[in-house]
Structures are given as structure tokens and as C-alpha cells.
Amino acid sequence: MARRKAKQASEAESALATVSKAARMNGTATTKKAGRKRTTAKKTTAAAKIPAKKARGRFSEVKGRYCVRDMKLAEEGHKLIDWAESHMPVLMKLREKYSKTKPLKGYTIAGCLHVTKETAVLIRTLAAAGAKVTWSGCNPLSTHDAVAAALADDGISIYAWYGNHEDFYWCIERTIDQKPHLTLDDGCDLINTVHEKYQHIVESGQVIGGTEETTTGIQRLRARAEAGQLLYPVIAVNDAETKWDFDNVYGTGQSTIDGIIRATSVMIAGKNFVVAGHGHCGSGVAKRAKGLGANIICTEVKATAALKAVLEGHEIMPMDKAAKVGDIFCTATGVKDVIRKKHFLSMKEGAIVCNTGHYDAEINLVELGEVATSKRTIRQNCEEYTLQNGRKIYILAEGRLVNLAAAEGHPSEVMDMSFANQFMSHLRLAEAHKKGEQLAIEVLDIPEEQDQFIATTKLQTLGSKIDKLTAEQLSYISDYNAGT
Ligand SMILES: NC(=O)c1ccc[n+]([C@@H]2O[C@H](COP(=O)([O-])OP(=O)(O)OC[C@H]3O[C@@H](n4cnc5c(N)ncnc54)[C@H](O)[C@@H]3O)[C@@H](O)[C@H]2O)c1
Question: 3.30.420.40, 3.40.50.720, 1.20.1260.10, 3.50.50.60: which CATH number matches 254-405?
Fold first, then answer.
């Protein structure tokens, strides 16, 4: 997509004296006044309070269009997005094809998904296909501020910044202000906000469908559908084979280890590495940590998942036991309170604890606070808690997704397939709407052909070829009478 510079935009920028903790963490802390020379946004700068009620720190904002940390970061963001584009060939092929026909013209898409360079490639592709796009981050610590600035510079309506704890839902609501026809979620926060607070835009026929990116979001959607509370059709992007079996496994596997190393710089080899949940994400993390020489211990609640871990050569034990021997802990369950008070109290001196599940509920930090006597920040994304028993343990990234908060999220190559699924699902929803086809109001699966198309295209871009079944083989596998 050609970059659309924000030439006519007038920018109001807040320069409040209070510098937020998030800004300090992000290395953007400053008390200088607004009004410095900018690389991209051209127009006026006026000291003004940002509309978010609780936000503190410095922001670049154009009312009704964007609120990001700092537009000066846009050039850096453009380079990162260019890099991601060169590693996402499937999505780029889709962009090339659909930028000519613009099948999403006339549709506004509100997205709530981690603002990374890969997400920016998806956003540019949706926009190239004709959609008007408006976006917010889906996690307080996963927005890459340079990418957010570049997207605002591209003319995308975006409300997101790293460290957005207080104004998380304010940002989501600003995207709903743009009257979306389609929603694109990662964790269901946007869909939930539409359902709980903006039902009228569904009842009026404005919203026609949505998509959901992650396992936890799908669980919530299914629970909503089962309770008869789902108001529009939502496609389960997470459940596509080319998403769940690749992004969650290989993407989370690599980027979680990346986040742990960036936040601590510890050696993985020789450590007792405890992975809670040997599902898609957990098995990927275990695989990669094992590759680096760690001894893997898995905890599980599902027998088949535990058995798979055993056959991978990992040890299986309950968390009560693992807590005593682990050096590094990583939760990947999507369930709350997996590590709690009694576990903290039995951990070894220096234990490192982090989470790669969607929400920060997996490690009970409230209970940790109850048994801690002091806390200090050792380095970015690494906090030391001294417990009543005198031992120190280290929590990474406030218990939030360590791969996105402390690193850059999944590699572009794997997000290529996840986001090709997102893009094609939005095409499907728009096409159905244009044809007057009423999709069932439920959680819909990705069609098998879409998975096969994405996998085939990915293989082609990798230069890999596969065999084709011969006519004889086809008839053999469909013959119920073929014997030995
Ligand atoms: N970090 C990321 O970038 C990223 C990427 C994709 C998904 N996710 C999130 O990671 C989480 C896991 O997703 P998934 O696709 O691996 O799900 P999954 O269903 O494949 O695996 C979860 C596993 O955790 C196990 N489990 C549940 N409760 C447990 C408990 N109390 N103790 C031990 N094990 C338990 C389940 O039995 C299951 O095997 C979700 O919250 C998902 O949204 C994160």
C-alpha cells in the first residue's frame, strides 16, 4: 500500500509533566515540552490533554484518527514493516491480487490485535484491498510504538501504545466509533466490548461478522455462543491448521525463548525448564528449550497432552512438585492461577517465572505480593521479588505474554500464514454479505481449501515441491475392500 502521509492532519500532543512507568520502561521518558521538529506529521502541535481519562506521559494524537506514543518513531516503524513484508510472501501475493479488485471497498474493519510489524503488513493488505481500517492493541505490553507511529503515518486510524494499562478499553472504543462492519480480534476484547456496550451497532445491521486469532479468544467465543449470547458470525482463525499448528507451536516456541533471553540473558542449557501446559504453545516452547540444552519438565491436566510430553522425552509432574525443582517456569495454558502462593513459597532461590498464555492470569501476582517483602526492577521486563522466606524470584514482563512484551512476538515467516487466514476470512465475510448470504451466527471454521491454499502457496514461496497421489493411489485409498 502506498504510504499515505498525514499531511492535512492536525496533531495535538500532550506533554504532561508526569512520566508514566510504562514510558520509562519503554525508554521514552522525557519531561521536555511538545513542539519539537517532527519527521512525518507536518502540522500544528498544541499542548493538550489527551482524551483518555487516566493516561499519563507523552502522546501524539489526532482526535478521531490516532493516538500513539510518538510520531517521530514513524520512520523506524516503516523500515520494520518493510522488513516484515519481505518475509511474508503469502500475504504479499494476496495483496498484489486483491489490490486490483478491491473486494473490501466499502467495509470498515476494526482490529484489536498486537501492534507488531507483522500486524502492520496485515493492516496494509486489508487497506490495499479497499477496507477502511481502524486498530487498537490487544495487550497492554505488546504494542511496538514505532510500528504504531508508522501506521498512523500511513493514514490508518490507530489507538495503541506500549504500556497501555489504564486506557486499554478507551482505545478499543475509539475504533468502534468508526462504525465497523467487521471485527478482527485476538482474545475477544473487541468482540466483548461490542457485545456488552455497543449492541446497537449489531442490532442495526452495521456489524456483519468477525474473526478471532487466538485459543483463549476461541474458548470465550464458544462459551458465548453456547450461552446464546453471540450476536454475529465469527470465524475461528486460530483453529486453521495453517495457524494453530504453526504459529502457536513454532512461533510461540521461538519467540518465548527469545523473550526470556532478552529479559534475563540467562543460559538455558542445563536449567530445569518447567512448561505448564503441553498443548500447541507449550509443546513449542518445550521443544525449543530442549534444543538449547534445558531439562524439560511439563505440567498438564490432560492425559493425552501429558503422554505426548513423556514421549517427547520430557518429565511430567504436578506443579506442586515442579515448583520445588524448576529454574525457569513458563505458563502456556490459557487458564488462571497455574502458579500461585504455595508454588512461589516452594521455589528455589533465583527462580525465573514467566507466561506466554494470552492473559496475565496464569501467574497469580496478587498472591505473590502477599508473600513478598520487597520488589525491585532489575532490568527491563525483569522484576525481583524477595519473599518472606528470604528467597528471591524473578517475574518477567509483569506475567504478560513474554514473547511480545520482552521480544518482538512471532517471526514474520509464521505470521504470514496466520494473517493470510485472517485476510481470507474477512474476504469470505464480505463476499457473503455482498451476495446477501446469511452466515450462521456461530463460531465458524476455516474451510479446508483455505488451509490447503495457504500451505501450498507457502511451500511454493519456499521453493519446496511435494508429490501428487497417482490415480492408482487415489483409487487404493478409497477402496474399502483392499487388503494385504
Ligand atoms: N504467546 C503467544 O504469542 C501466543 C500465541 C498463540 C496462543 N497463545 C495463548 O497461549 C495459550 C495456550 O494456547 P494453545 O494454543 O497452546 O492451547 P492448547 O489448548 O493447545 O494448550 C493448552 C494446554 O494447557 C493445558 N492446561 C490447561 N490447564 C492447565 C493447568 N492448570 N496446568 C497445566 N496444564 C494445563 C491443557 O490441557 C492444554 O494441553 C492461550 O491463552 C492462547 O491464547 C499465546
Answer: 3.40.50.720
